[in-house]
Amino acid sequence: MRRTLAIACAAALVLTACGTKGGGSDGGTEGAGGVTTDVGVTDADITLGVMTDQTGPFKALSTGITHGNQLWVEDANADGGICGRDLKLEIVDHGYKADTPKTLYPQIEPKVLGLVQLVGSPVTAR
């Protein structure tokens, strides 16, 4: 159930990148096919973020979830991507340390449309 919900949320997020209406004056420009390009969305790619634990106590769980995300991206790209754009993942490791995302998020945020994975309750509480 949770996996289905997570996939549905990720798909909804990605599909919003296919919209042809801008959300305001945030600097987006019209790209190929009339689709607005902006942070994380170019004429060629849609980049999504993954903030996960690759080295801490939840490494085994997080690695499995990340591999699932990568399989989803590969499948979507094999089917032509989303709106003719390939999906890409920007993956960062917070090591399940609650303070690390404070420095990682500002690094990843300008590169991604949104996050499809965020592991750890101390991390999400920040």
Automatic annotation (TrEMBL):
Signal peptide location: 1-19
Pfam families the record matches: Peripla_BP_6
Coiled-coil positions: none
Keywords: Signal
Residue ranges of every copy of the Leucine-binding protein domain listed in the record: 46-125
UniProt xrefs under InterPro entries: Leu-bd (IPR028081), Peripla_BP_I (IPR028082)
Homology family: Belongs to the leucine-binding protein family.
Record protein name field: ABC-type branched-subunit amino acid transport system substrate-binding protein
Source organism of the structure: Prauserella isguenensis
